[in-house]
Design goal:
This protein has a single domain, classed as Regulator of G-protein Signalling 4, domain 2 (Orthogonal Bundle). 69% of the residues lie in helices and 0% in strands. The protein is built from five helices and no strands. The chain starts with a helix and ends in an 8-residue tail after the last helix.
Amino acid sequence: MFWLDCEYFSNLPGSDFMKRIAIKICKKYIFDDARLQINIAGSTRQEVMRVIWANPDRNMFKKAQDEIFKLLEADAYPKFIKSTEYDLMRKNIENSASSLTPSSSMSI
């Protein structure tokens, strides 16, 4: 969700609207009391906080996005690949794909 909110933010028109949306994103993910606080470096958090009150720009969340992506890539994704949920999903997809393949007994 954080990633998508940041992508939406980076495509916003107008600086006044950008500042309001940036504050909403920070309240949701960045501030110390954020309800869905993300795990980013303290220095990244401080930089976002500095920029939000000075002059928000389209790339202000880029470093935070990169950090979240690296965490997902290194931790969450490998765990998901090893999960039973992933294994069931993969098997369902394989079964669905094989049922869509024309059988050899069909004549064209």
